[in-house]
Design goal:
Strand content of chain B: under 5%
Number of strands of chain B: 2
Number of domains of chain A: 2
Shape of chain A: elongated
Radius of gyration of chain B: 23 Å
Helix content of chain A: 40-55%
Oligomer: heterodimer
CATH architecture of the largest domain in chain A: 3-Layer(aba) Sandwich
Largest sheet of chain B: 2 strands, antiparallel
Shape of chain B: globular
Number of helices of chain B: 22
Low-confidence stretches of chain B: 1-17
Strand content of chain A: 15-25%
Mean pLDDT of chain B: 86
Number of strands of chain A: 9
Distance between the termini of chain B: 43 Å
Radius of gyration of chain A: 21 Å
Order of helices and strands of chain B: HHHHEEHHHHHHHHHHHHHHHHHH
Strand order of the largest sheet of chain B: 1-2
CATH superfamily of the largest domain in chain A: HUPs
Helix content of chain B: over 70%
Strand order of the largest sheet of chain A: 2-1-3-4-9-8-5-6-7
CATH class of the largest domain in chain A: Alpha Beta
Distance between the termini of chain A: 46 Å
Structural class of chain A: alpha/beta
Number of helices of chain A: 9
Low-confidence stretches of chain A: none
Largest interface: A-B, 16 and 27 residues
Chain lengths: 285, 472
């Protein structure tokens, strides 16, 4: 009897599908963090301002926080908290010589990501002469998650930051290593048909995000959002696959959620991506 | 050829021969019958399936019957000019009942793969907008309808599973117990609606000669009234209320709108075929007694034919459906019929019949009412199938014979079905309800169920007695 109850419970649980609802983030107040005096940061601030404007992000207040406002980490956090911006824009290696720790975000940025819940747009490090690298308008935005269904926030931001008519690539890469590990266990259980299990579990793992993306497309069409959605759902190795995807789609902006469900300092996948992709702007949520 | 077919005679010659049977033999076999009923009542404690229990008793009864010489020496089936000798236990089984159950089970199993039942259930969930009271009413009606056209157990499994998932989705797990108890009780109400809705109906209806259409027309008004009364009582006892704010209504509607009714449909064509086949099956069963050629083949033929036709959709894997058949139930019926046949030869049924006669001699009103209530009490603590099988045999052999329109048949039908609402072991579907409740980690004891169900069961029995005595 239990197996028949389970069978129908599975049918109904499978029919229960998460549906995406577009909830555009509020971006009225933006704070730009620089590690120079405010006056010396005009080039960077203008670059950030025009980048946001190109994505139709009209801000009511555009604040610049420089060395007048903070010279250490605690002061930086206090300054950011006091202004309560909806978005922080800054660059890699804030207050850090990039040559020292190239494969790092830098302690200021690390602390900012851990100490606040404010989304941070991280641009590449300035050139050796201190000039900002030019920011391309985000025609291709890659939203990278380890579980798309739990992450509508990343999608909302991805859609908000894409240039009009651009493409938002909604990426859901199921970890093939984890899948194979479980399959190896299933292969050792005589009561479970391995081939059936492999086929069904794989199909279900990929079907859920595929259905969710379909609901995203439907919701965005209803809201008349001028962007195209490209679903990317597959089994693979996340960092390797995201590398490939960025090359394939020439991703102009990568969107990642840094909140770790297990309350670790920063989501391991987001951190790996942040370290790996040093030449793309990142929107870390 | 047609003439040959028409001359088919199935005769279990001398299966009811009356050799001398001493009262001590009757008492021994009566003891065996009581022991079997007791074992069935404690099936869970014995950790033994029904078919095994009745199978062992069938073997013991047959051997003892042969040793004591109470069984006829031979059974003969005459088919045209051919004579076939059959062991006594073959004609003892009511193959029509077995064919109906097997055919209906296979048909339901195959059509459920089309996703039609989950589609209907999810559509109704969405139509409720997530409002708890609407959900209770919709699920209640659906339980009754599914119990009527499928079987009580399958209906409870489908609705119980959906209730668990949807109430959790709505954040209303506190109402889950009330919903599941109500649905469990309503399966036994829905089980009264048609001749094939429950096994007691099939056994009694078959023995009494009640047609599918007559059964439905006579039972339907009671089912409607009892369903409304049950939902009304459930609403007040379990505190199920409508949503009162626009915000709550919108949130609930959003939550249920995420159910996709098409998820379980593997093929639209198969889905439509299944829906059409269902309607045709009901139509065919309703008209079996008047359809030329088919009327002689009976409802078992109709059920089996539809099952076989539907199996064409899975022609390469029919063995999976055969394997999924409830062989325990079929084995249980077959061996139960054998035991009852032996009891008939041992004159145990005559003895029970005499006691029953005393009950019926109390008059049309008191006698029939008492028969209904005592049937309900008996089936609340043990399986209602042996009870209805024994009573069907006794009432069928009654002299003078009870016509198909007699209310005594209905007293047994109503009593056997509704008795299941008194305790969680009274029917298979209430047992399923308990299983679903426990799977949801809601503590509910035997006594807890009885306490919750007793007001409903008393309401049902009161309505049934009034209906049988006044209307039928």
């Amino acid at each position: 009897m239990s197996d028949r109850i389970d069978q129908f419970e599975s049918v109904f649980k499978s029919a229960e599908k998460a549906r995406y609802q577009y909830d555009p983030p509020l971006l009225e107040r933006v704070a730009v963090l620089v590690d120079t005096a405010r006056e010396s940061s005009n080039a960077y601030v203008e670059s950030a301002r025009s980048y946001l404007a190109a994505s139709n992000i009209d801000t009511e207040e555009f604040l610049v926080l420089g060395t007048e406002d903070f010279t250490d980490i605690q002061q930086m956090l206090a300054a950011v908290h006091s202004k309560s911006p909806n978005l922080v824009v800054t660059h890699r290696h804030l207050h850090l010589n990039r040559q020292e720790l190239e494969h790092s975000l830098g302690t200021y940025l690390d602390t900012l990501l851990q100490g606040t819940t404010i989304p941070v747009l991280v641009t590449p490090s300035p050139n050796a002469d201190g000039q900002p690298k030019p920011l391309e308008v985000a025609q291709d935005v890659l939203v990278m998650t380890d579980h798309l269904l739990d992450d509508p926030k990343s999608i909302n931001y991805g859609v908000r930051f894409v240039a009009p008519g651009g493409v938002v690539h909604l990426c859901h890469i199921e970890d093939d290593g984890v899948f194979q590990k479980y399959m190896e266990m299933i292969e050792r259980i005589p009561e479970i048909d391995t081939d059936v299990a492999r086929e069904k579990i794989r199909a279900k793992l990929l079907q859920l995000p595929t259905d969710y993306i379909a609901s995203c497309i439907e919701a965005l069409q209803t809201e008349s959002v001028n962007a195209r959605i490209n679903p990317v759902v597959r089994l693979g190795h996340r960092v390797t696959d995201y590398h490939r995807l960025i090359d394939e789609h020439e991703g102009d902006l990568l969107v990642c959620n840094t909140n770790d469900p297990e309350d670790l300092a920063i989501h391991p996948m987001a951190y790996a991506i942040a370290l790996e992709f040093r030449n793309q702007p990142l929107l870390l949520l | 050829m047609i003439q040959n077919l028409q001359t088919i005679l199935l005769a279990s010659a001398d299966t009811h021969a009356e050799p001398h049977v001493s009262s001590s033999i009757t008492m021994v076999f009566g003891g065996l019958l009581l022991a079997m009923v007791a074992c069935l009542a404690f099936e869970e404690k014995l950790h033994a399936k029904k078919s095994l229990i009745t199978g062992i008793f069938a073997i013991v009864c047959l051997l003892l019957g042969e040793i004591t010489g109470i069984l006829p020496k031979e059974s003969i089936a005459k088919i045209g000019e051919h004579t076939i000798r059959l062991p006594v236990y073959i004609p003892a089984i009511d193959w029509e009942v077995i064919a109906i159950i097997m055919g209906a089970s296979l048909f339901v199993d195959v059509t459920s793969k089309s996703g039609i039942f989950s589609w209907i259930a999810i559509k109704l969930t969405k139509a409720s907008g997530g409002d708890p009271l609407k959900l209770l009413i919709y699920y209640g009606i659906l339980t009754v309808v599914f119990s009527a056209v499928l079987n009580n157990v399958t209906a409870m499994i489908i609705i119980g599973s959906l209730t668990t998932v949807s109430l959790k989705k709505l954040g209303r797990s506190d109402k889950l117990l009330g919903f599941l108890i109500t649905e469990g009780l309503l399966t036994n109400i829905g089980g009264l609606l048609t001749l094939i809705s429950s096994v007691p109906n099939i056994i009694i209806g078959n023995r009494a000669g009640i047609s599918f259409a007559t059964f439905f027309l006579k039972a339907a008004p009671f089912v409607v009234v009892a369903t409304i009364a049950t939902l009304w009582l459930a609403r007040s006892r379990f505190g199920v209320k409508r949503l009162d704010t626009e915000g709550a209504k919108k949130e609930a509607a959003d939550r249920v709108s995420s159910f996709d009714e098409n998820e379980g449909i593997p093929s639209k064509r198969f889905f439509i075929t299944s829906a059409v086949a269902f309607v045709l099956l009901i139509a065919a069963l309703s008209t079996t007694s008047i359809l030329p050629y088919v009327k002689d083949l009976g409802m078992g033929f109709v059920a089996m034919s539809f099952a076989v036709i539907m199996l064409i959709a899975f022609k390469n894997e029919v063995n999976k459906f055969y394997a999924a058949l409830d062989w325990d139930l079929l084995g249980f019926f077959a061996s139960l019929f054998v035991v009852i046949n032996v009891m008939e030869h041992a004159l145990v049924l005559d003895a029970v019949g005499k006691a029953l006669g005393a009950l019926l001699d109390m008059g049309d009103t008191l006698g029939t009412g008492s028969l209904l209530v005592s049937s309900a009490l008996a089936s609340s603590v043990t399986d209602n199938i042996p009870l209805s099988a024994v009573l069907a045999q006794i009432l069928g052999n009654h002299d003078p014979a009870f016509p198909a329109s007699s209310s005594v048949w209905w007293a047994v039908v109503f009593g056997a079905n509704l008795g299941g609402n008194l305790t969680p072991i009274g029917s298979a579907s209430t047992l399923v309800a308990m299983t679903v409740i426990h799977r949801s980690e809601i503590p509910l004891s035997f006594g807890g169920f009885v306490k919750a169900a007793i007001p409903f069961a008393l309401l049902h029995l009161t309505l049934a007695v009034a209906y049988v005595l006044i209307v039928l």
